[in-house]
Amino acid sequence: MQVMDAAKCMRAGIESIPELKLLGDPRACILSFASANKQLNIFAVADVMQDTHGWKVERQHRPDSIHLSVMPPHAKVRLVLVTHARDRLSHRRLTERDGTREQIAEQFVVDLKASVEVVKANPALADKGSAAMYGNAAAIPSDAVVEDFLVSFMDHVYRADAAATTSTSTSTTSSSTTASTSE
Prior knowledge:
Layout: H1 2-15, E1 20-22, E2 30-35, H2 42-53, E3 58-60, E4 65-69, H3 72-75, E5 77-81, H4 85-90, E6 99-103, H5 104-121, H6 129-139, H7 143-158, H8 160-182
Antiparallel strand pairs: 1-2, 2-4, 3-4, 5-6
Helix pairs in contact: 1-5, 2-5, 2-6
């Protein structure tokens, strides 16, 4: 039940942000949401969530959106240390009694709101990071072109003989260099 409560908290948080719209009517712990207007790049929001706040969210197309599965870690409670200028000046060691407890799902909502504000204030973020990559991939008119590229790329990256070929050519090069210097 804790995971479902965390999902409800995150859902309510997403719905409270006017620039976002929840996709579908999630009844479980999978959420997907998009920008409610074209001025806010949802992929840039995902980049800020990851780069600034450490949240790993998945990006989707058609429509451009963020997708996440609410898991048991989202339902946990964490200790948040509260610091004041006097604490930093005295270098006093902070302990649990100095902190407050908050649900991680609630922090997701706080970070999401902050990320939306960052992207609204910096629209150029849509041209950077994965926001630019996802935006360009979505602009390709034919799925076949994207599919051909991805198959070719993945084949090249994960080819079993690629590592063997690299290591063989390296040792062959080393042998030839050694042979020519010894003559």
